[in-house]
Amino acid sequence: MNLNKILLFATLIVVSLLLTACGDEIARVQFQSVGSNEGTFEHDGGEVELWTDWDVEYQDIPVAKYSISFYQNGDGLAEFECDPQNVKYSLMLREANTAEITKISYLAPMYCDVDLPEGAITMVVNFEADGGGMVIHRADLVVKLKEIIESGEE
């Protein structure tokens, strides 16, 4: 077996492991420009991960953030900010650079996890982006169930 086949096989294994480590999507708040949006979803309780589905182009790296608030029956549960450019890893990464512009697209978990109770959850999201001549094709905030991988040790 030559080195290229070994590298291809190893890459396929890593991609398969990453894809199976991704939890189920339970909510999505869509953005094609800056602004506010909200969504409601049913949750069985437990920790969720916040992902970004990011497809933008820019001249200089912009500053961007999601300001997120979670509510249940009108009561505030959690508030925080997440940076869609500060991610744990990225899936389906596509990037193209020229002297004038960068185009980048990926699906990735941000460093934002939150433990939510069981029931109907409302999330209010404000997406802000500034500078860099940014064009937003998609900047969705995605809520996924957090997958817990057990080691099998007792």
List the helices and strands and how they pair.
Blueprint: H1 3-20, E1 25-29, E2 35-58, E3 63-72, E4 75-82, E5 91-97, E6 102-130, E7 135-145
Antiparallel strand pairs: 1-7, 2-6, 2-7, 3-4, 3-6, 5-6
If you had to describe this structure to a student in words, what would you say it looks like?
The chain is mainly beta and 154 residues long. 12% of the residues lie in helices and 61% in strands. It has one helix at 3-20, and strands at 25-29, 35-58, 63-72, 75-82, 91-97, 102-130, 135-145. The chain is elongated, with a radius of gyration of 18 Å. The N and C termini lie far apart (38 Å). Mean pLDDT is 85; it is low at 4-21.
Q: What's the number of helices? A: 1
Proportion of residues in extended strands: over 45%
H/E topology pattern = HEEEEEEE
Structural class: mainly beta
Overall helicity: 10-25%
Biggest sheet architecture: 7 strands, antiparallel
User: How widely separated are the two ends?
Assistant: 38 Å
Mean pLDDT: 85
How does the overall form come out from the CA principal axes?
elongated
Unreliable residue stretches:
4-21
From the alpha carbons, calculate the radius of gyration and give it in angstroms. 18 Å
The number of E-state strands comes to 7
Task: State the gist of this model.
By secondary structure, this protein is mainly beta. It has one helix at residues 3-20; strands spanning 25-29, 35-58, 63-72, 75-82, 91-97, 102-130, 135-145.
